[in-house]
Amino acid sequence: MTRGGRTILVFGDQLNRRVGALADADPARDRVLLVESTGKITDRRWHRQRLHVILTAMRRFGRELAAEGFAVDHRTAPSFTAALDAHRSEFAPAEVIATEPNSRAAEAWCTRVGVGTARSDQFLCHRDEFAAFAAGRKRTVMEDFYRAQRTRFGYLMDGDEPAGGVWNLDHENREPLPRGEHPWPVPVQHALDDLDHEVLAGLPDGIPGADPVGWWPTSRAQALVQLEHVIANVVPGFGPYEDAMSAHNWHLAHTLLSVPLNLGLLLPGEVLDRVEEAYRAGAVPLASAEGLVRQILGWREYVWGMYWWKGAGYATRNDLDAQRPLPAAFVTGAPSGLRCLDGVLADVEAQGWAHHIPRLMVLGNLALTAGLDPQAFTAWMHERFVDGADWVMVPNVIGMALHADGGEMATKPYAAGGAYIDRMSDYCGECRYDRTKRVGPDACPYTTLYWAFLDEHRERFLRNHRVARQVRAFDRLRDADGIAARAAEVRAALGGAPLVD
Question: What distance in Å separates the CA atoms of residue 398 and residue 381, rounded to the nearest whole number?
Answer without folding.
Answer: 11
